[in-house]
Amino acid sequence: MVIKIPKYRRKKREKGMGIEIPQSYSEDHGLKQEILKQIQKYKSGEKLEKQKKVTIEDLDYYLKPLLRYKRYIEVIYVYGSAISRGEANDIDVIIIVDDTDRVNEFAVDLIEKECGFIEEKAKKEGFRFHFQPVKLLSKWWHLLIEGEPWIVSSLKHTYIFYDKRNLVKEIQEYIGKNILYKREEKTERLIERSSNSIIKNRQILLQAVATLSNVSTEAAQILFLFENKLFLNRRKIGDELKKYESRIGKENVDTYIQIIDLEEKVEHGTLSEFTAENLEYYSEKIKNLINKIELILAQQKPKSEDKKE
Hints:
The chain has 309 residues and is α/β, with parallel strands linked by helices. Helices cover 57% and strands 10% of the residues. The strands form 2 sheets. Strands 3, 4, 5, 6 and 7 form a 5-stranded mixed sheet that branches.
């Protein structure tokens, strides 16, 4: 039995089962949980649940209520895995309204509310619809001409439910001939988006360094408060922690100093690399430091209380 899932750089394999579970900070938690359920069923001898399929008749049935707004709608089409593989749990729909004349915003609100009703109704019967926010024709056309990757891809496997002027069908013919957009433009957009994603991921990782530094500093400050000491400077906190090495452990003290070193490099823009693996490593180390401080605090009372006694 093999369950196919997206490939990630780090993988964990269940012994003898041929099932790969993604191990990544960007993994879909719901997908992982579903795979784990399937593994448990497999181990217990139960048959795996068959994925529900969607048919054209199903799509027509659920999308039909939208036709009451067809005077405002230019195009309704379904795209993606619902069409290419018949998957009922991922039915993507695009609705385009004509904005060559004044857009009726009230009508757009009614259309979006209808989409919400369809999603709720279909969900109860095992079909998961995902409606894109209503698109204006001019905006959609602009994205198409610019070679927006997801717009172009959405037109390759489609079911056209409603098309007032046969617009989508004609556009599909042009896409097949590479007339509407240049492949180079699409590639540039993908590279630009990839670069933006890398920058955002790096920002998240660097922010995580500050978070680790903050939580470990707060834990150390609480420890010092029990001794009627207060330090705000992180370097001084590191120096003071060295006096507690016999109780906290030299490795834990070194971890704190390492994390404030990293934070300073982030602030000065000199940290060349910090990966998800580094984050996982330091997270575990900081947890150990905090756990050790909590054990010490549980065993002692503040000095002010000792004096009262």
